[in-house]
Amino acid sequence: MRDAVEVINGFAARGGAVAALTRDGDRRWVLGDPASVSAALGVVAADAIEILAGVRSGALALCASPTCRAAFFDTSRGRTRRWCDMNTCGNHEKKARRKARRG
Ligand SMILES: [Zn+2]
Question: Could you tell me if 9 and 45 are in contact, meaning their C-beta atoms sit under 8 angstroms apart?
Fold first, then answer.
């Protein structure tokens, strides 16, 4: 665990991305010009710190699709979200269930 914490903190410290406020009141990351992999990893690390430290309201979950199992951050009320993305895995699962019912 200590090594993982150091890796996350290291990427967060040297990332170089800057948080910016949008006119809609959202946060947007500015990766620099040209954008670098280091800046992108810094954003991932900053997000990981917020999630692991409990700053964000939500829960880590795994996609219910047996062929995906991607990790996602569930911010739904009641934490009942099942798929990483409704347009991909969610629709695949719905279609599969419909097909199975029809036989
Ligand atoms: Zn998925």
Answer: yes
Q: How far is the CA of 16 from the centre of ligand 1 (A)?
A: 30
Q: In total, how many domains does the chain have?
A: 2
Q: Same domain for 97 and 63?
A: yes
Q: What is the pTM of this model?
A: 0.66
Per-residue model confidence as pLDDT tens digits over 38-72: 999 999 999 999 988 989 889 999 999 989 999 99
Residues 28 and 69 in one domain: no
96 CA distance to ligand 1 middle (Å): 14
18 C-alpha vs ligand 1 centroid, how far in Å? 29
Question: Cβ(82)–Cβ(90) under 8 Å?
Answer: yes
CA of 61 to the centre of ligand 1 (A): 11
